[in-house]
Design goal:
Elements: E1 9-11, E2 18-19, E3 33-35, E4 40-43, E5 57-59, E6 64-67, E7 81-83, E8 88-92, E9 103-105, E10 110-113, E11 127-129, E12 134-137, E13 160-165, E14 168-173, E15 176-180, E16 183-187, E17 196-198, E18 203-207, E19 220-222, E20 227-230, E21 244-246, E22 251-255, E23 268-270, E24 275-279, H1 284-287, E25 299-301, H2 312-315, H3 322-354, H4 356-383
Parallel strand pairs: 1-3, 2-4, 3-5, 4-6, 5-7, 6-8, 7-9, 8-10, 9-11, 10-12, 11-17, 12-18, 17-19, 18-20, 19-21, 20-22, 21-23, 22-24, 24-25
Antiparallel strand pairs: 13-14, 15-16
Length: 384
């Protein structure tokens, strides 16, 4: 190409394309929409992609791409959707400052490192999917700055693009595959109102900062299969629009906040395989879930679990009875007698061995006792 191309839409997704992506994207600067997902492409993402200054949508998902995500992609100042999920990408999560980004889907790669603080500056972000990687560290409290997720049913505006070609206008409808409610779904129309955060299946740890529950427009939150710990913050009651919550296979402890029963839109709940304790909150919403939502938490009780919170073994503290106290006293008494006898015995033996006068006196005492015993025996024989 000579750089004069006016091509705006390139969609070659879900074919059998193989090989690498050539580093010639500087000749296609008019591109707005690029979809190459669902192929067998290999190699690295070429750095010249970052020269597409008009690019709004880049879909490279479901390929065999490797290497890191080019940091130079931050130069695509109009980029709104980036989907590079289901590849073999590695390296650290990029610290982008793309203010126009509304969907970041990097799931099912081999990306590592912490969630960059720059992610918090993506105020327009409505879908954040970093699931199934090797991400570590804690959850940044500044995620509350993703203000687009604080407004319920806010339109993200990323799914309709218009390409004007001479005498007619072509309407492009972008879509994104989102994993929510335990399954992958392809969203077109409804995704323009979707608000989701998925950080599941990573190596993240620490406590959940209460600030994240300021994202009051969030509909789907998945933090499962990590190493998060601590109590569930009461601020979760602020997420009135939450439809699915998955915290399974972590190390959460303490009681489940009673206010969670007020999340009236909650359809999917998974708190299994943690260390939650106490009674499951009462309310129509919670009792509507089955026991699988709470399995693997042996210290939970109440419906829908078969374990009744009124059972004595659930709350009874072990009380030490008087019989137990007496047995403990006798044990200590007998031990004291044994120790005293052993001490006296060895004390006498040592004195006999090292003190000549004491040794002679001791044996004279034994001889006298022997004589007295003999006299007693003779007297008893006389009476018989």
């Amino acid at each position: 190409m000579n750089g004069r191309s006016q091509l705006q839409l390139l969609d070659m997704s879900y074919n059998l394309l193989s090989g690498g992506l050539t580093n010639c994207w500087m000749h296609w600067k008019s591109l707005v929409f690029v979809s190459l997902g669902g192929n067998k492409l290999t190699g690295k993402i070429p750095p010249s992609v970052s020269l597409l200054s008009n690019l709004k949508v880049l879909l490279l998902n479901k390929n065999n791409l490797s290497g890191g995500i080019p940091l130079s992609l931050k130069n695509c100042q109009k980029l709104e959707i980036l989907d590079v999920g289901e590849n073999k990408l590695s390296g650290f999560l990029p610290d982008w400052r793309m203010r126009t980004a509304k969907i970041l889907r990097l799931r099912s790669n081999q990306l590592s490192g912490n969630v960059p603080l720059q992610t918090c500056q993506l105020a327009s972000l409505t879908i954040l999917d970093f699931a199934d990687n090797k991400i570590s560290g804690s959850l940044p409290a500044c995620l509350q700055n993703m203000t687009a997720m604080t407004f319920p049913n806010s339109y993200n505006g990323v799914h309709y693009f218009f390409v004007r070609i001479r005498d007619f206008t072509y309407e492009m409808r972008g879509y994104v595959v989102v994993h929510i409610k335990g399954r992958a779904s392809r969203y077109v129309e409804n995704s323009k109102l979707l608000h989701s955060v998925d950080l599941s299946r990573n190596n993240m740890s620490g406590k959940i900062p209460p600030e994240i529950f300021s994202l009051t427009g969030l509909q789907h939150l998945n933090l499962s299969h990590n190493q998060f710990e601590g109590n569930m913050p009461n601020e979760i009651r602020n997420m009135k629009t939450l439809e699915s919550l998955d915290l399974a296979s972590n190390q959460f402890s303490g009681e489940i906040p009673q206010d969670m029963a007020e999340l009236s839109f909650l359809e999917v709940l998974n708190l299994s395989f943690n260390s939650f304790t106490g009674k499951i909150p009462t309310g129509t919403q919670f009792q509507g879930f089955d026991s699988q939502s709470f399995m693997g938490d042996p210290r939970l009780c109440g419906a829908p679990l078969p374990k009744n919170c009124s059972d004595k073994e659930d709350h009874a503290e072990p009380v030490e009875t008087s019989d137990g106290q007496e047995d403990e006293f006798l044990s200590c008494f007998y031990i004291g007698i044994g120790v005293g006898f052993a001490t006296a015995f060895w004390g006498v033996c040592i004195a006999i061995f090292f003190n000549k006068n004491f040794r002679h006196s001791y044996f004279r005492f034994l001889y006298r006792m022997q004589d007295k015993l003999e006299m007693v025996v003779l007297e008893m024989n006389r009476f018989h």
